[in-house]
Design brief:
Strand content: over 45%
Number of strands: 34
Amino acid sequence: MKNTCYTYINKSVFILILTLHFISVYGQNNALILNGAFISVSSGTWANPVYLVVNNGQPAAILRNSGHIISEAEGNYVQWNTADVTATTNYVFPFGYAASDYLPLTLNKNSVGVGAGHINNTSAIVASTWGTPASNINWANSVSNMIGPAGANEFNSVVDRWWQLQSGTNVDATFDVSYRGSENTTTFSPTGLFGGQHWNFPSSQWLPPNGSGTGVVAGVGIVNNITLVPHGIASSSPYILSSTGAPLPIELISFTAICDGNKIHVNWKDATETNVMSIELQKSTDLSSWETIYTASPSNSSSVTNYDYEYSEFSKSIVYFRLISNNNDGDADISAVIYTQPCSSNENLVNLFYYNSMLNFHTLFSENAIVNYSLHDLHGRKITEGEFIAAEGDQLLSIPLEKLSFAIYILHAESNGKTYNQKILISEK
């Protein structure tokens, strides 16, 4: 415990000073009252968790005037046993970051739950939260995929904070979470709409985002009405907040469009397909009018399916692509949008695209040509620079660039006494 805190038990004057280190602390029929104190639950890991257990199911079992509970690690838990409450109600977990920011998690319980007793019964709620200043690294224990369509990933689409929220399988609830504005380092639409996404450990995929909140980059942001997915106590159940315009993958693993000579090579991979009637590949040059250029027959398989299509119509403008998954029940799912610059077979044209925090050059410079390049914003500020020796034929160079904002950039390249300039649009759509 980093700070001294006081737990008042059952209206008595007895004061219990808590030290939390690989133990569970119980207070029978008690109320935890925070009045300017900070409880730091520390040293817990996924393999060896630490629990602060509130063994009173009433919402008033934790009362906060000021101060908060500091978790800041996946294995530092508050467990609130709620089975003795005979009505639906809300529970506020008074989490916070250090001694500065109050970041409560509010559980909106829609069902009473069942089960006798309190400890690890079907209505216990176990929660922790932790910030990840290194753009969501380290991931939650069970997560194996944070790459989405249109370049959505842990760097540019996800707020730098995790929540682990476990519950009994009979709990029906939604919850609201808070995060620090400084943790919103996304580039897809940082002040747009965000939703909560849950990593479904049994299927190893992200479920569709739900809930809603407007993103903030200062102060404290809130996303409300995220659906609780009950898997059982001690099951991995992590959540993140992602831009609703570019969520992490649901069934679509990847979606790319790159130049191949004077053609655009479009590829996508589906992790799972269920009750899909058809998949349409659509293209646009203005993000307003869309044309279906290819219709794929789905596999409706639980294994990975790979799709490829070559688009050869000549265009002098950026071409945008999206996927429409038409389901047998009449619904349709629309993917995020990707795009590519115009393709050409002319020598020395530089083609650019930005995906997965990488700036990718598709070039057709003369073999062995020494190419010096630099990337600038529209104010002339240099973002990066470098040099390479061109190989024979089409060459792909990838340069890591984190957190490019929504903007237009200019790639400047020089080779054999000639200069080339090409725009790249980083778009939220």
